From TrEMBL:
This is Hydroxylase molybdopterin-containing subunit. One of its GO terms (molecular function) is oxidoreductase activity. The keyword Ligase does not apply. Pfam families: CO_deh_flav_C, FAD_binding_5. The keyword Flavoprotein applies. Signal peptide: none annotated. SUPFAM superfamilies: CO dehydrogenase flavoprotein C-terminal domain-like, FAD-binding/transporter-associated domain-like. Keywords: FAD, Flavoprotein. InterPro entries: CO_DH_flav_C, CO_DH_flav_C_dom_sf, Diverse_Substr_Oxidored, FAD-bd_PCMH, FAD-bd_PCMH-like_sf, FAD-bd_PCMH_sub1, FAD-bd_PCMH_sub2, Mopterin_DH_FAD-bd.
């Protein structure tokens, strides 16, 4: 590990000033420390933000507010989260082992780096790690890589399960930085790789995630998260689907669907949602709509199986959501 300095921020202003001067935030450190050990990440200065009062979970005007420093385990077990937004609780439980959930923060989970093996191989070209060096996955091992939102410079999937659920639920995030406070949809946090895959998010230098705000909706309780992976224990998704349904009078009034394991960022399935509106919550309607999920996909040699697995996963997640009382 490359030597670094560590300081502890006493307040948000001190943390932001340090980050604006080049320091990196650290909370749970479940991704950053691993990458530092492997010398993929080489920050010279870290600022510990765990003392900041950003771990509260509360309800304001029917909006669930989750602090950026709340631990995954605490959020998943919180009675308000389980009652109001079970999709979030389920995605957190599916997203990491109990040990990691006890350490990892909500903000850190959203900003975790990709799990492409070439990103961690210092002797392999990777445009995320070394811009302009090339993408080893294009002609290498890419069975677990993306089929949506890819470019000739990167095909790595975004790894967060939680982010998929938050995108499906139209969650807003609040950040604070040198230029003040701003809010925007979680979906807008993530960049497509394009020709600059090393730029993964839209945060400005020094900006600190404060919280995420989850609006209530008739779809919130009839929701499920389905994750398909190589093994049942802790593993990243080959394909996942976060689904929330508003059903009334035997018809789907509104559907919210986002997927993981298939896109270079959490992928909202708006065409599928629109196709389901006004339809009965039945398998035939689910299957017809789910085919739209792969309309713009660009599979490669080894990940072409996701063209079939993705619609099937969406269909099964819709069935599970429809069964929720």
């Amino acid at each position: 590990m490359i030597p670094f300095t560590l300081e502890k921020a006493r307040n948000a202003e001190q943390a932001i000033a340090a980050a604006a001067a080049g320091a990196r935030y650290i909370a749970g450190g479940t991704t950053l420390i691993d990458l530092m050990r492997e010398e993929v990440e080489r920050p010279e200065r870290l600022v510990d933000i765990n003392a900041l009062p950003l771990a509260e979970i509360r309800v304001e005007n029917d909006v669930l507010v989750i602090g950026a420093l709340a631990r995954m385990a605490d959020v998943a077990a919180h009675p308000e989260v389980q009652a109001r937004q079970p999709l979030i609780a389920e995605s957190l439980i599916e997203g990491a082992s109990p040990q990691l959930r006890n350490m990892a923060s909500i903000g850190g989970n959203l900003l975790q780096r990709v799990r492409c093996p070439y990103f961690r191989m210092l002797d392999a070209p990777c445009n995320k790690r070394d811009p302009g060096s090339g993408c080893s996955a294009l002609d290498g091992l890419h069975a677990g890589h993306a089929i949506l939102g890819t470019s000739d410079h990167c095909i790595a999937t975004h790894p967060s399960d939680l982010a998929v659920a938050l995108v499906a639920l139209d969650v807003t995030m609040r950040v604070l930085g040198p230029q003040g406070e701003r809010s925007f949809p979680v979906e807008d946090l993530f960049r497509l790789p394009g020709n600059a895959p090393h730029l993964e998010h839209t945060l400005l230098p020094g900006e600190l995630i404060i919280d995420v705000q989850v609006p209530a909706g008739a779809y919130s309780r009839r929701a499920r998260y389905l994750k398909v992976r190589d093994r049942a224990s802790y593993e990243f998704a080959l394909v996942s689907a976060a689904v929330a349904l508003d059903i009334e009078g035997g018809q789907i009034r509104q559907a919210r669907i986002a997927t993981g394991g298939v896109g270079t960022r959490p992928w909202r399935m708006r065409a599928v949602e629109e196709a389901l509106a006004g339809k009965p919550p039945q398998r035939q309607a689910f299957e017809a709509a789910a085919q739209l999920a792969v309309r713009e996909a660009r599979p490669l040699r080894d990940n072409h199986y996701k063209m079939e697995l993705l619609p099937r996963t969406i269909v099964r997640a819709l069935e599970l959501a429809g069964e929720v009382a």
